[in-house]
Amino acid sequence: MYSELIAEQAENQIKEQGRVIERINSMLKLEPIKDLLIAGDRNTFKSILKNTPEICGCALEYEPGYKNHDVFVYRHKDSIYFKKLSHGSIHFSTERLDKDAHAQRKSYWSNYYYSFSYIKQRVFSRFEPMYDSKNQFVGYLRLDIFLEEFTDFVNHLSLYKTGYAYLMNRNGILIAHPNQEIRMFSDIRKYAETKNIDYEKILKRATKEESGSGEISIDHVRFFVYFKHMPHTKWVLVVICPHHEVFDSIARINDLILICCISCLILLFWVVIRVIKRLFYPLKQFSTVTRMIADGNFNEPIPMIGNKDEIQELRESFVYMQKRIVESIENLRISTIEKEKIEGEMRVAQRIQERFLPSIPRISKFHFSLYARLEQSKAVGGDMYSYFVKRNCLYFIVGDVRGKGIPAALYMASVSTLFNYIAPRKRTSSDICNTINNYMSDNVEDDMFITMFVGILDLKNGMLSYANAGHPFPILCTREEKEVKFLEDSLGIPIGVMRTMYKESRYQMESGDMLFLYTDGLTEAQNSERHFYGKERVKKVIESNPCDTPQQLVHIVLDDLKEYTGNSHEEADDLTLFAVQYL
């Protein structure tokens, strides 16, 4: 039992570290970041390694035929290096490839290996399949982690006085062992042969069973052995403890259990004798009353008992039960009323959330025209937009909180309030993003973040200053050039993940130019065949339907979305559309 607790402790340690890596994976699959990774953007790869100290390397191993090289960035001696590696006809390294996972296009963890050429340490990797916007398999995103990050805790596990634990793979190769002398053998079989230990039976069981136990003899001393497979990896945790230490502990526990059992038996015998003498007659009365209560006569009086003993306590229990039944019926009536009250409060919460949005979703003055549309998948949600005019500049923001419901709505309200307070006091869009991100990263502990696009439009000359915090790329429609394109030159991580510095970008808008922003509720909407709407369809719809006003642009996209998904299709996420035109 103690060995199982030790193994469970180790399993929880590896699960927790594995969840950290999987959370990083989920963030890297956000659409704008994913597109840059597939394109092999050097700065994006370096930024990932710089901002995630948990990993020591990041690579995109392309499927043969998609590209003739792999992209790899790694950390070595406090420096970050970027490489393009030719893979030729061998697209994934054999020592890390899981053939079954690759055939099924699944995520998986590799075996550990030594990176001789680059990282120069023992590492193992997390592989995540990647698909482009056309749902074509591109290859695998690989995150490399130092092996010691997952194995250092093994040396600190202790069992009784001299017991210990170690890690090996399913072939018996040692991964971590607290004994330096044994660690020099690398293969546990070699150590067993040196000590003449019959270890082969245990090793065969460890490769086939998820967990188990057995016994071995080392230098004429008997040892208990417990083994368990670890999550995310193909490792086996082995716990070893001397036979005599286990039995000494069991003997002490048995003595204590024996004393407790004898005491309980004596007490039980005395109680039974007392109860039998006074039990039968009152129980018959209680049986009759119980049947009447079961038939619905909840207010039937309970017979009085003269003696103040166990039967009296039983009567009081019946009285209490009767009272609780009546109260439960009353509580059921009240809970029904409360449910109706909660539904009313949710409707009030929706109206309160709407007050955080600008009161006018359409405006045309001060040399610009603007129109916005927000549709929530629940009564309250996490999408937001806001704007105001100050010092001949239009300040605007569009954001999407990770999640739905009340938590996302509260997070949205915090960001909206911060923007309305901070924006007039900042000179650039990047300053606004930096201030909001620093506050949300330091003060919000929940696993939540928001993708956000912040823009400042100078109404005198049409100069647009903007910063993108992990939000889908906006679309720019130019009147003179009659061109529709994405603004893709600025992208940072979402707000609230960690402290970072955001980049400001600028674009000179001409009279009649329109900027269209949206949340992923648009691009990730699905039709009956579970196909995504996608950002390329958004672009094609706008190209095919030239618009004169922001309101026309929003309604054209929204009408096409409803046609694509079907009018009765339930929305999977909150949806925000926002268009602004410089006049």
Automatic annotation (TrEMBL):
Protein localization: Cell membrane
Asked if the keyword Cell membrane belongs to this entry, the reply reads yes
For this protein, the record's InterPro entries field holds: Bact_Sigma-Reg (IPR052016), dCache_1 (IPR033479), HAMP_dom (IPR003660), PPM-type-like_dom_sf (IPR036457), PPM-type_phosphatase-like_dom (IPR001932)
What domain of life does the native source organism fall in? Bacteria
- State a single Pfam family of this protein: dCache_1
Q: Which UniProt keywords apply?
A: Cell membrane, Hydrolase, Membrane, Transmembrane, Transmembrane helix
Which regions form coiled coils?
Answer: none
Q: Where is the PPM-type phosphatase domain?
A: 362-582
Cell wall biogenesis/degradation keyword on record: no
Annotated protein name in UniProt: SpoIIE family protein phosphatase
**Organism in which the protein naturally occurs:** Butyricimonas virosa
Q: What is the lineage of its organism?
A: Bacteria, Pseudomonadati, Bacteroidota, Bacteroidia, Bacteroidales
